[in-house]
Amino acid sequence: MADSAQAQKLVYLVTGGCGFLGEHVVRMLLQQEPQLRELRIFDLHLGPWLEELKTGPVQVTAIQGDVTQAHEVAAAVAGAHVVIHTAGLVDVFGKTSPETIHEVNVQGTRNVIEACVQTGTRFLVYTSSMEVVGPNVKGQPFYRGNENTPYEAVHRHPYPCSKALAEQLVLEANGRKVLGGLPLVTCALRPTGIYGEGHQIMRDFYHQGLRLGGRLFRAIPASVEHGRVYVGNVAWMHVLVARELEHRAALMGGQVYFCYDNSPYKSYEDFNMEFLGPCGLRLVGTHPLLPYWLLVFLAALNVLLQWLLRPLLLYAPLLNPYTLAMANTTFTVSTDKARRHFGYEPLFSWEESRTRTIRWVQAVEGSAQ
Ligand SMILES: NC(=O)c1ccc[n+]([C@@H]2O[C@H](COP(=O)([O-])OP(=O)(O)OC[C@H]3O[C@@H](n4cnc5c(N)ncnc54)[C@H](O)[C@@H]3O)[C@@H](O)[C@H]2O)c1
Ligand SMILES: CC(C)CCC[C@@H](C)[C@H]1CC[C@H]2[C@@H]3[C@H](O)C=C4C[C@@H](O)CC[C@]4(C)[C@H]3CC[C@]12C
Question: What family is this (predicted)?
Answer without folding.
Answer: Belongs to the 3-beta-HSD family.
